[in-house]
Structure formats: structure tokens, C-alpha cells
Automatic annotation (TrEMBL):
It comes from the Bacteria. Belongs to the inorganic phosphate transporter (PiT) (TC 2.A.20) family. It is found in: Membrane. The chain crosses the membrane at residues 35-56, 62-80, 92-117, 140-164, 171-191, 197-219, 231-254, 260-282, 303-322, 350-369, 389-406, 412-429, 464-489. Its main location: membrane. Keywords: Membrane, Phosphate transport, Transmembrane, Transmembrane helix, Transport. This is Phosphate transporter. It is a multi-pass membrane protein. Pfam families: PHO4. It comes from Paracoccus acridae.
């Protein structure tokens, strides 16, 4: 009997020990899971550094380039985590794309845009803001670019961690400006270029909002407010897809094919118009088939706008990759040029491996850290459905494409958020207009009280102040941080 009791106690002890090990295993798994994304990110950063060293050699210049590549990869990851949310947020918020589908589409098209069409804006960031010859010593210029890159990466990382919607373009431009002023005074900065860029930060959100509101007005007037909504959609949805396809084709002809064959602006417009017409004709039977059997109500229209919303999200990702890859590899390209020729004024083509770091870094950052901000952008500013999200995406894509074609590093954050606000404010105005029209003469209507006015608002006003404050503080914050880092790097560097 005693022997049996002893065996029972041993088994109970073993069960408790096994239970502790099982609990420990579950706890270890739980703790290690959040470390997977940082671990993958760190591996990519180190791989970028080793790859740069292999491409450049083991000299002291190679070590500096490797350090810059590490920081550039770190910045690219932050861009993917922060900025790409503005591209895919509307589609996910409208339930037109799953999170996995959005990440897959964005990763492919971000990479393609960066590699095919990212060169012009990289030149603006790396050489257009601070003239290398004004700084003089190549080593000083290298440390200035290094400080700019590191300051902007740190700022975007902190902002992403706290959920602040800052602009990575603001960050890197502020960093370049702060380091340039510290290195060679205010004369080193190209103030006309800065004025143009600053103006674009004001114009781009307004333009994005106006274009998005105009498209939403067109959809409402031509489709939603018609008696036969499905018949109207069969006519106009293919047209909207054709416009989008034509815009994308014209841009690709100007930017992507220009490296293989010279295409004039007029010929690019012809190519875009031709492909737009082809897509319009192809989509007519597709939309007719999709609309078969749908009820004549607004909910049915969401089905028909699924394809254009997905295509517009892909277009926006391509444009974003072309424009914002400069934020990651613009200073890195300047450092590589300075080290390769021992001169800060030599102009050479941007190495392909530099563009790869930016392209794949953005995609990895999106995949590892992007879902949280994608959900925030897609649902916390205003309510989006597929039609509204399509207007946001197409408006942002058109604005970013024009900016990238002009070599102007505008903020995709400003454009996308401005488009979302434009859609929301247009809905408020349109709802108020239709309410007054339905009730008769507006002079005879009582003015709604404060509570009723708050109830009618379709845009969260708190986000206006939050986003505005984040936009205002980013440039001075990164400029000051870059100046401090430049002093440290220049003091302790070789």
C-alpha cells in the first residue's frame, strides 16, 4: 500500500514537472513570437551590410559604405512599415482586400516601382537638396549623408512605434537639410529646391483631396444616384478602369521603358490612351458578367468596384515604390558615389544593389510591421466602402505618379491622407446638400444644434490636429537630430 502511495506521489510530481515544462514552452513560444519580425528585420539589415561590403571591398571606404547600407536598409524597413499603410489601408478598410492579399500585392508592386522608376527622385534626394561641392571634403559630405539617413530612420521608427502618421519624405529631407547646414552653413542648402519641395507638401494633400472628391462626385452623380444603378455601373465602371490603366501605361512608358528606348511625352500619352481604350473594351463584358443578377441597390455596387479598387491599390504601390525608395537609398547613393570616386561631385549611375536594398527593404517592412498601421489608416479617419476607397487610391496614385515623373519627392502620406479627408468632407457636404434639397427651401429650415452637427460629421476631427502636428514637427525634429549625429560622426569618424 505504501509502495503504491509512493508511486502515486512520484507520478503526481512528474505530472507537475511536465506541466511546468509545458507552461514554460508555451510562455517561451509566446515571448519569442513577437521577436520573429525584429529577428527577420535584423537579418535583412546585416545582409545588406555584408552585401555592400562584398560589392565595394574590404577597404576603409567599404566599411563606411557597409555602415551606410545598414542604415539605408533600416530606413527602408521603416518606410514599408509606415508609408505603405497609406496605400493599402483604404482597400483593406473597405474589405475589398484581405490583409494577406494587400501585403502580397504591395510587396510585388512596391519592388517593381522602386527598381523600374525610382532613379529620378533618388537624384533629387541625394544631390538636389545639398550641393556636394559646397561641403568640400568628401569625408565631410559622407558623414553628413550618414547623419541624415540615420536621423530620419530613427525618427520614423519612433513615430511608427507610437502610431504617429509622419512622412518619411519629410524625415529624410529634414535630415539632409540639418546635416548640410551643420556641415557648411545655410549656403550649402539649395533653398529654391527646398521651397519647391515645401510647396509640394502643401499642394499635394490639397490636390489629392480635390481629385478624390471629384471622382467620388462623378461616381455618385453617374452611378449611385441613378434610378438603375446597375445599368449605369455597366457603362461607367469600365470607363474608370480604362482611365486608370491608361494613366499607369503612360507613366510606365515614360519611366520604365525610357531605360531601354527613348519615348517622348506625346508618344507616352498615345500608348496610355491606346491601352486605356483596350482595357475599357475588355472590361465591358467582364463588368456585364459580374453585374448579372445583382439587385439594384448601393450594396451591389461594391461587387463591381472590387477589380478597380485592387488595380488602383497596385498602381499606388508602384508609384509609391518609385517615389519613396529615394528616402531609403538617396543618401546611400550619394555616399557610394563619394567613396567610389573620392569626390563628392562625381556623377555616376546609381548601383543596382543600392536600389535592391531600398526595394526589398520596403517590402520586408510592410510584411513584418505594416498590418497595424494599415488597419488604422483604413478605418479610423472616415468610413470607407469600395467606391470611396477606389477614389482615394486612384487620386493618390495620380498625384504620386505626376510627382515622381517630375522628380519631386512629395509625401505619399500627405497625398493619401489628404485624399481620405477629401472623400470624407465631400460626403459631409453632399449629405447636407441632399438633406436640405429634400426638405425644401434652406432659408426655411431651422439651424441644427451643436449635438446634431457633431452627429452629422463623417470625418474624425481629432485626426486633423494629430496629423497636422506630426507633419509640422517632423522636419525640424529630424534636422536637429541630424545635426547632432553629424557632429558625433564627424568627431569620431576616420
Amino acid at each position: 500500500m505504501a509502495q503504491n502511495d509512493l508511486e502515486t506521489r512520484h507520478l503526481e510530481t512528474l505530472d507537475r514537472d511536465l506541466g511546468r515544462f509545458s507552461t514554460l514552452e508555451r510562455a517561451t513560444t509566446y515571448i519569442s513570437r513577437p521577436l520573429v519580425a525584429p529577428g527577420v528585420a535584423l537579418s535583412f539589415i546585416l545582409l545588406a551590410g555584408f552585401g555592400a561590403m562584398a560589392a565595394f571591398g574590404l577597404s576603409s571606404g567599404g566599411l563606411i559604405v557597409a555602415m551606410a547600407a545598414v542604415i539605408g536598409a533600416y530606413m527602408a524597413l521603416n518606410i514599408g512599415a509606415n508609408d505603405v499603410a497609406n496605400n493599402m489601408g483604404p482597400a483593406v478598410g473597405a474589405n475589398a482586400l484581405t490583409m494577406g492579399g494587400a501585403i502580397a500585392i504591395a510587396a510585388i508592386f512596391e519592388t517593381a516601382g522602386a527598381l523600374i522608376a525610382g532613379g529620378d527622385v533618388v537624384g533629387t534626394i541625394s544631390r538636389g537638396i545639398v550641393a556636394p561641392e559646397s561641403i568640400g571634403e568628401p569625408s565631410v559630405f559622407v558623414w553628413a549623408m550618414m547623419a541624415a539617413l540615420l536621423s530620419s530612420a530613427l525618427w520614423v521608427n519612433v513615430a511608427t512605434w507610437i502610431g504617429a502618421p509622419v512622412s518619411t519624405t519629410h524625415s529624410v529631407v529634414g535630415g539632409v537639410m540639418g546635416a548640410g547646414i551643420t556641415a557648411a552653413g545655410f549656403g550649402a542648402v539649395s533653398w529654391p529646391t527646398m521651397a519647391t519641395i515645401a510647396a509640394s507638401w502643401v499642394v499635394s494633400p490639397l490636390l489629392g483631396g480635390v481629385i478624390a472628391a471629384a471622382f467620388l462626385w462623378f461616381i455618385k452623380a453617374r452611378i449611385i444616384y441613378r434610378d438603375d444603378k446597375i445599368a449605369a455601373a455597366r457603362i461607367w465602371v469600365p470607363v474608370l478602369i480604362g482611365i486608370m490603366a491608361g494613366t499607369f501605361a503612360a507613366y510606365l512608358a515614360l519611366k520604365g521603358l525610357s531605360r531601354l528606348v527613348t519615348i517622348s511625352f506625346g508618344n507616352a500619352l498615345v500608348i496610355g490612351t491606346a491601352l486605356g481604350l483596350v482595357c475599357w473594351l475588355v472590361m465591358i463584358p467582364v463588368i456585364r458578367h459580374q453585374s448579372h443578377g445583382l439587385e439594384n441597390r448601393n450594396k451591389s455596387l461594391k461587387v463591381l468596384f472590387g477589380i478597380p479598387l485592387v488595380v488602383s491599390a497596385a498602381l499606388l504601390s508602384f508609384a509609391h515604390g518609385a517615389n519613396d525608395v529615394a528616402n531609403a537609398v538617396g543618401p546611400l547613393a550619394a555616399i557610394v558615389q563619394a567613396q567610389a570616386f573620392e569626390s563628392a561631385t562625381e556623377s555616376v549611375a546609381i548601383p543596382f544593389w543600392v536600389m535592391l536594398i531600398g526595394a526589398f527593404g520596403i517590402s520586408f517592412g510592410l510584411f513584418l510591421f505594416g498590418p497595424k498601421l494599415i488597419r488604422m489608416v483604413g478605418s479610423q479617419i472616415t468610413k470607407l466602402n469600395p467606391m470611396r476607397a477606389y477614389c482615394v487610391s486612384l487620386s493618390a496614385a495620380l498625384t504620386v505618379i505626376v510627382a515622381s515623373w517630375l522628380g519631386l519627392p512629395v509625401s505619399s502620406t500627405h497625398i493619401a491622407v489628404g485624399a481620405i479627408f477629401g472623400v470624407g468632407f465631400f460626403r459631409e457636404w453632399d449629405a447636407e446638400r441632399r438633406l436640405r434639397a429634400a426638405q425644401g427651401n434652406e432659408h426655411d429650415l431651422p439651424h441644427p444644434g451643436p449635438e446634431e452637427r457633431r452627429r452629422r460629421k463623417l470625418v474624425r476631427r481629432s485626426h486633423v490636429m494629430t496629423i497636422g502636428a506630426a507633419w509640422v514637427i517632423t522636419v525640424p525634429a529630424t534636422a536637429v537630430l541630424s545635426a547632432i549625429l553629424f557632429r558625433l560622426l564627424n568627431a569620431f569618424g576616420p
